[in-house]
User: Which sequence fits this backbone?
């Protein structure tokens, strides 16, 4: 049986940076590999700890269930603790997310993409360059699995 597909999580405010680096040398004997915080984990931290929302309110903002938001938030905290204790850098990247902006579908190459710069006119598909693009609502993209 194949694993259940993750539905994309809504990210309202993407991070302004790509990560953090520790000051000094990593702890002796530990790998210098970065700890990766997924974009949905960043968003859960931002909503709960920076914006001061409850996990229920954060889950509603992200378009996911409260238990899922709690798991995402707990995972982010574990990763940050690991990075602090082991002296590792933190990279913020990846995840199953969509951004709070207009979404489009390219009929030529079948990709879905967003246009975060709402004030900038969309010139075509960023993947294939086709102008055969139609606007989608974010809710439709979520139902389709965000592909």
Assistant:
């Amino acid at each position: 049986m194949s694993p259940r597909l993750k539905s994309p999580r809504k990210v309202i405010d993407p991070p302004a940076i790509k990560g953090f680096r520790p000051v000094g040398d990593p702890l002796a004997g530990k790998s210098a590999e970065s700890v990766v915080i997924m974009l949905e984990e960043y968003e859960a931290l931002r909503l709960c700890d920076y914006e001061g929302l409850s996990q229920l309110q954060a889950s509603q903002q992200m378009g996911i269930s409260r238990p899922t938001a709690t798991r995402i938030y707990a995972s982010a905290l574990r990763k940050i603790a690991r990075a602090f204790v082991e002296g590792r850098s933190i990279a913020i990247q990846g995840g199953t997310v969509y951004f709070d902006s207009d979404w489009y579908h390219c009929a030529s190459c079948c990709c879905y993409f967003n246009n975060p710069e709402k004030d900038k006119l969309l010139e075509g598909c960023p993947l294939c360059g086709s102008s055969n693009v139609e606007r989608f609502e974010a809710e439709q993209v979520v139902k389709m699995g965000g592909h």
User: Anything to note?
Assistant: Residues 138-147 have pLDDT under 50 and may be disordered. The longest strand covers residues 102-106. Residues 101-143 form one domain. The beta strands are 9-11, 19-20, 35-37, 90-92, 97-99, 102-106, 112-115, 133-136.
